[in-house]
From TrEMBL:
Pfam families: AgrB (PF04647). The keyword Nucleus does not apply. The chain crosses the membrane at residues 28-61, 81-99, 105-124, 145-162, 168-185. Coiled coil: none annotated. Keywords: Cell membrane, Hydrolase, Membrane, Protease, Quorum sensing, Transmembrane, Transmembrane helix. The lineage of its organism: Bacteria, Bacillati, Bacillota, Clostridia, Eubacteriales. InterPro entries: AgrB. This is Accessory gene regulator protein.
Length: 192
């Protein structure tokens, strides 16, 4: 992917569409965009395989919405990141399928667990990385957004689970759970 990004930007530089001094910035941007597109496409394919296409997208975007501001674990290589993303998507879609096939007690346990996850997000976020350290203003702003988004997703998921939109509610719950998991993994990473 990096080679493709580099060649694409080199084409633009050679045709004087991008300044040579901006080359690295554009390569990085193209690399991030391509990586995001591959992740989204993979989530969509996995969703189709599970016959949970909409649910896979709801899970992914609720997870990304919280993660963007709460932070969390970052894999050391793009391949590890991709593998972690695929495995976590499969596990969460299995959880959605399972939740849909069992009784209400499991649903109530999931809601309680999601509430616990929201509390953990409130307490731990944001967790920055060495590559993207946050200043004090950004930390306050990111925390506010992480809390607001996770609380809103909790309320929406509660509404969905208690109505006819159960799978959407389960998908939102899984997004909150996954966001909390990567936050906890980052917390462990920082302390070690």
């Amino acid at each position: 992917m990096e080679k493709f990004s580099s060649k694409l930007i080199e084409f633009f530089v050679s045709n004087d569409l991008i300044k040579n001094e901006d080359k690295e910035l554009y390569e990085y941007a193209v690399n991030i965009i391509l990586s995001s597109l591959i992740h989204i496409a993979t989530v969509m394919i996995i969703g189709l395989c599970f016959n949970l296409f909409i649910e896979s997208l709801v899970f992914y975007f609720s997870f990304i919405a919280i993660r963007k501001f709460a932070g969390g674990y970052h894999a050391k290589t793009p391949v590890r990141c991709y593998a972690f993303s695929v495995i976590s998507s499969i596990i969460m879609l299995c959880l959605i399928k399972y939740a849909n096939s069992v009784g209400n007690i499991f649903t109530y346990l999931l809601i309680i667990f999601e509430l616990l996850c929201v509390v953990l997000i409130i307490l731990m976020s944001p967790l920055d990385t060495e590559n993207n350290p946050l200043n004090s203003y950004e930390k306050k702003w990111y925390k506010t957004l992480a809390v607001l988004i996770s609380v809103c997703i909790f309320i929406i998921s509660l509404f969905c689970v208690l109505t006819e939109l159960r799978n959407i509610g389960y998908s939102l719950i899984c997004g909150v759970i996954m966001s909390t998991l990567v936050l906890l993994m980052r917390k462990v990473q920082i302390t070690n």
